[in-house]
Design goal:
It comes from Linnemannia gamsii. 56% of the residues lie in helices and 4% in strands. It is built from ten helices and three strands. The chain has a three-stranded mixed β-sheet with strand order 2-1-3, with no helix packed on it. A hairpin with a 3-residue loop joins strand 1 (139-142) and strand 2 (146-149).
Length: 255
């Protein structure tokens, strides 16, 4: 493929997903080839507060081992991140960015008390969980053709990982699911019950990522995601989504 086509293909990935893929690739490979020290990447709140190593707020979510699972990790992040950003969050990259930021903050707080210092799987499962809510009735094919509704997909991944890792509970994955569910509840479910919208997207993100109208899909900036998720689910129908299985990491735990 000519270079300009590669550049065009890269630029065709929506901006937030593209940023996450780029960060994951650079940081993970950088650590693997010793261009970047892992000691500068992992989550450590003491170093954040007392030595102002602010990068640790972000880097733990974009590091994963460069092994057989690496390409699958990137594929999953690309697939479900792109689908969310192009459909559920069509024209609303600022709202998608806020979802990523909110779930990352939530995950990092919980991970700190549980002793986990690498959180790529938390980020990935947050994205997959919200995608599963948006496509809850869609039929997913996993591993050897086993089919089930997409709403169960995150839990299948958790169970698969636990089996592959010898009955070890994949806490980082569960942290990501819990963070995404908290966002969904506060952003959509609770307001639909008559409560206030407690986590509106910050105005700064709208200034950095202006809303764009998408043909055939109107929206209002700052709106909740519930109606959009339901619409995306209806559009998803029962189309099959082939999903390759691989051995998922459980994240690194301090000590």
């Amino acid at each position: 493929m000519p270079e300009n086509e590669l550049v065009a293909a890269y630029k065709s990935v929506p901006i937030i997903t593209r940023t996450m893929l780029t960060a994951t690739t650079i940081i993970s490979i950088g650590v693997a080839v010793h261009l970047v020290s892992f000691n500068l990447v992992y989550l450590n709140w003491s170093l954040i507060f007392y030595r102002f190593q602010i990068q640790r707020l972000f880097t733990p979510f974009f590091y994963t081992g460069v092994n057989f699972s690496f390409l699958f990790d990137l594929y999953f992040l690309y697939t479900y991140g792109t689908q969310l950003e192009n459909s559920t969050y069509a024209g609303r990259s600022a709202d998608f960015a806020w979802f990523i930021i909110f779930t990352s903050i939530s995950s990092s707080i919980v991970a700190h008390y549980m002793g986990y210092v690498v959180l790529f799987q938390s980020l990935l499962l947050s994205v997959i969980y919200l995608w599963s809510q948006a496509n809850s009735d869609r039929i997913v094919s996993f591993m050897f053709g086993v089919q089930f509704k997409a709403v169960y997909f995150p839990w299948v991944l958790v169970a698969y990982n636990a089996v592959m890792m010898g009955a070890v509970i994949p806490w980082t994955m569960l942290i990501g699911i819990a963070s995404a569910h908290l966002y969904y509840f506060l952003d959509s479910v609770y307001p639909a019950m008559g409560g206030p919208k407690l986590i509106p997207t910050p105005g700064l993100l709208y200034r950095l990522l202006p809303a764009q109208e998408v043909a055939g899909a109107g929206f209002t900036a700052g709106g909740g995601t519930a109606s959009v998720l339901r619409a995306a689910g209806r559009q998803g129908g029962t189309a099959a989504a082939e999903t390759a299985g691989h051995r998922w990491g459980t994240g690194n735990r301090l000590g």
